[in-house]
Design brief:
This protein has 435 residues and is α+β, with helices and mostly antiparallel strands. Helices cover 37% and strands 24% of the residues. The chain has helices at 2-6, 43-53, 119-148, 154-160, 186-192, 197-217, 243-262, 301-316, 324-330, 373-388, 391-399, 407-417; strands spanning 10-19, 23-31, 57-60, 79-84, 92-99, 172-184, 221-226, 229-234, 273-289, 294-299, 320-322, 340-348, 356-362, 430-431. Helix 6 packs antiparallel against helix 7 (243-262) and helix 10 packs antiparallel against helix 11 (391-399). It is elongated, with a radius of gyration of 35 Å. The N and C termini lie far apart (72 Å).
């Protein structure tokens, strides 16, 4: 209809296609006068335009016409042209336009000429064909993006751009913040669900959805799934000073989501808890793997550290543990209305050589009133006394903390074992005997 409106001398328009297997096809046609009967385009003209020349071909069936081609004469039409629609897979296809002449045909615009200049109509149809091709490409791109969304985070999709160039995904060294989140109670759930493994898989998938939702919500990249655990990271493909802060926001969101489901009877995630470790440092991020299979993930000691911090949550009896590099970057920027941080201890993880000053990430006081800001200050004061060897003073500080707070158990046990007196060789480091 657009072409019939834009080409005043056109009587009929068709969508035509040609390929070697099926030959010439008319996929759709319209006429200016519906009572004029079926429209039968010239297959030879269409083949010439779509398969051989790959450009618009115009033919006029008049003895004086300057364009001469050996095409089948169309009794009801004086002229026809076929314009390919660029791009697309499968058969070549295009727009076929035909009409009659009420004045002589001219092949150039000359001053004072009253003839019909069809080349302008060809140009108009080529413009329509380009618009159609652009719409097609956008539709294909959107379908690609829809399928890629299952595998790539919005951050990566945005980085790839419209041309989906994967060069940006090549592995490179960068500063990243890594979040490792693992389910608690999975082993028990697996034993209890031995007769319903698909049901267990559905529940674990729901839990992983909670983790990935908050990682992606705060601009992270999901790097891998390991059974009941999820890995997320920030700082790639684009560097960001906000990476540690966004990782903390994601962790607090995951904690809040699991705390909410714990209060709902018969909820699929009711008996699940989680532990989260967050570390910041140098790593290699991007396409990592073999020549046959790759993953978009992150590699380096910081990943191992994040995993170790997550494991420490069991021994430290807290849900979220941060390393000193993360704390240094977020303590001043994390709003008290979003979350709070308290130091826990200086730990030497099992199998590692460098001790780590670990801290806990907590919800704001309004969301977690069982621990006030004042009590957190007392706790951190106690940790400082513990590290320098003033264990009696540390014990008194921890004594002010509510018994419901399990974090104090970790240090109080060691203080009690030594009668509140630091060992003579005390260096402030708690060495973990196992992972």
């Amino acid at each position: 209809n657009l072409i019939l409106a834009g080409v005043p001398h056109a009587e009929a328009v068709a969508v035509v296609a040609f390929d070697k297997e099926q030959g010439f096809q008319v996929r759709h046609w319209d006429r200016r006068r519906e009572t004029a009967g079926e429209f039968r385009p010239s297959g030879r003209l269409a083949e010439d335009a779509l398969s051989k020349r790959h450009l618009s071909v115009l033919h006029v069936w008049e003895s004086h016409a300057s364009v001469k081609q050996d095409y089948t004469a169309m009794a009801e039409f004086d002229w026809a042209f076929c314009t390919p629609v660029p791009g697309g897979a499968g058969a070549a296809w295009g727009l076929y336009v035909a009409g009659r002449l009420d004045r002589p045909f001219v092949d150039s615009r000359t001053p004072g000429s009253d003839g019909i200049y069809l080349q302008a109509d060809v140009k108009f149809t080529e413009l329509v064909a380009e618009i159609i091709s652009s719409v097609q490409r956008l539709n294909v791109l959107e379908r690609q993006r829809s399928s890629y969304r299952q595998f790539l985070s919005p951050t990566i999709l945005s980085a790839l751009g419209d041309d989906f160039s994967s060069d940006l995904l090549d592995p490179r060294e960068c500063d990243v913040t890594v979040l490792f989140c693992d389910l608690r109670g999975f082993s028990l759930q697996a034993e209890e669900s031995a007769d319903d493994l698909l049901g267990l898989l559905n529940r674990v998938s729901r839990a992983l959805e909670v983790m990935t939702h908050h990682i992606l919500k705060h601009g992270g990249v999901t790097g891998d799934f390991q059974g009941d655990a999820a890995l997320g990271f920030w700082g790639w493909p684009f560097a960001s000073d906000e990476a540690p802060l966004e990782a903390c926001r994601a962790a607090l969101g995951i904690r809040a989501a699991f705390a909410e489901t714990a209060e709902k009877k018969n909820h699929p995630l009711r008996n699940f808890e989680m532990g989260i470790g967050i570390a910041h440092g140098k790593a290699v991020a991007g396409k990592i793997g073999t020549s046959e299979q790759v993953k978009l993930t992150v590699f380096g000691p910081v990943v191992n550290l994040a995993s170790r911090l997550e494991s420490m949550t069991k021994q430290l009896r807290v849900p979220i543990v941060l390393d000193a590099a993360v704390v240094e970057k977020v303590r001043r920027t994390l709003s008290p209305a979003e979350g709070r941080i308290r130091r826990l201890a200086k730990i030497l993880p099992y199998g590692m050589e460098t001790p780590v000053l670990v801290s806990e990430l907590l919800p704001p006081e309004a969301a977690y009133p069982s621990l006030s800001d004042e009590q957190l200050r007392h706790y951190e004061e106690g940790v400082e006394h513990f590290i320098v060897g003033r264990w009696e003073a540390a014990y008194r500080c921890f004594h002010d903390i509510p018994a419901s707070d399990r974090a104090q158990d970790f240090l109080n046990l060691r203080i009690a074992q030594h009668n509140r007196i630091a060992p003579p060789d005390w260096d402030g480091i708690v060495r973990l005997p196992s992972k």
